Amino acid sequence: MWEIHGKRTADEAEVMEYFNLKYPPMVKALDDTDLYKFSMGQTYHHQYGTAQTVWDSRSRNVGEGKDLPEKYTEEDREEIRNQLKAYCALVWEEDALPWLSKRCIWFKPDYINFLERWRPKYEDFEIHDDPVSGLRITVGDEVRSFQEYNTYYEIPVLEIITETYYRNHFDYDKLLKEAKEEHEKKIEAMKSGKYHLGTWSEFGARRRLSFEFQDYVVRRFVEEKVPGFIGTSNVYLARKYNVTPVGTCAHEFIELVGQGDLTKNLAYSNLFAMESWVKEYGVLNGIWLTDTIGDELCRRDMQLTYSILFGGVRNDSGDPYEWADNWIDHYQKFFDASNKREYRVNPKNKTLLFSNNINSFEIWDGLTRYVEDRSNPAFGIGTWLSGPQTIPALNNVMKLVMVNGHHVAKESDDPGKTMTRSPEYDDFVKRTCGWRIASGE
Asked: Which band of pLDDT confidence, cut at 50, 70 and 90, is reported for residue 143?
């Protein structure tokens, strides 16, 4: 639903004409985004309302010598500008927030009231020509731009810049046809009983070929009653098909809480962030992302209390087999120390959620079989399900880079995923975390 000339409309042709769009609007609703934006958003609203932030996008595999050598062009950037203007004209659909608060009981009335009044603003975006990829989008500035608003821009920006590239640089109709054909093959394989797939959800909004294809993917899973499928991270599609919306926190939250306050030692970022999360949600909404400053430091900070309170952990980089072994051993240590009486840290009662580069049934099945007798494997699968199926998928990201006027960094157990504006700050983070690891603290 859009608001144009003070009137509301659901007519996409009218929206295309008004905003001079080459393609239908790529973001269909204010909840056409991932659930964890709202989970983090409530915590920002209640605890970090004064945090000022800046975000940058990066197209990791676009440019000369990369998977997708054609750079973003001025034609792309113009469509992106117009698509962002259309996004900023969206208003909440009547049933969106009531549905969200009913399905996710941890959202509080005052936060839902905040969302009712929140609207995206086009002036919050800057679109640049990047020398490598042809595109960089910045959200926010260092003076008057607050995280409790900026956080909602990440997924819509990625949805727009990704779909624009596919439509302008490829035969989109051909890509869509091929993707649907591949998806039907995947559904057939999922239903064959050949693979152990565990519990899983669709995580594809940020890397989707298009809204049209992500909608098709989720709809077909629902229609076919595919085993193990529980829902999607896309709140709009979860609402549309009445499945579970899935998602808790992301790297940005741990960066903001752990690095946004210079009086705190960033090597303990996970500890500070977990304290904040538990203050907000208690035992609800508790799957923790472990690799923001490296997995080892996360395990050190997740001692007995947090190992009990959080229902599980999520893998987003590094060797998933090594990661699973480390976390099973972590929980087992506490379980053994209780003489096997503290069932809440029994690894068999914990969820190990894999969301990094699950791009074949063999990988998926292998991880399930490796873990299922010792813990509860779950999967969040994005690009492989909802991205293009016959060309290299875009690897676009948008990350938090400044908090309260100073740099922050997303580190990772995969070096290629590190992102910051400052190499010097990146070195500082590595040295600080390295000190803690070496000291045994």
From this structure: low
Q: How far, in Å, CA of 359 to CA of 381, rounded? A: 8
231 and 358 within one domain: yes
Q: Which of 338, 369, 386 is the last residue of a domain?
A: 386
Q: Which residue is listed with tokens 């810049």?
A: 161
**Nearest 5°: CA angle at 353, between 351 and 357?**
165
With contact defined as beta carbons under 8 Å apart, do 234 and 218 qualify? yes
CATH number of the domain that residue 16 is part of: 3.20.140.10
Concatenating the DSSP letter of every residue in 85-154 gives: HHHTTB---TTHHHHHHHH-TT--HHHHHHHHH----GGGEEEE--TTTS-EEEE--SSS-BHHHHGGGH
The DSSP element (H or E) to which 313 belongs, if any, is: strand 312-315
Other C-beta atoms closer than 10 Å to the C-beta of 362 total: 9
- pTM of the predicted model, to two decimals? 0.95
Q: Are residues 176 and 134 in the same domain?
A: no
> In 302-439, which ranges are continuous DSSP H helix?
304-309, 320-337, 361-371, 383-386, 423-439
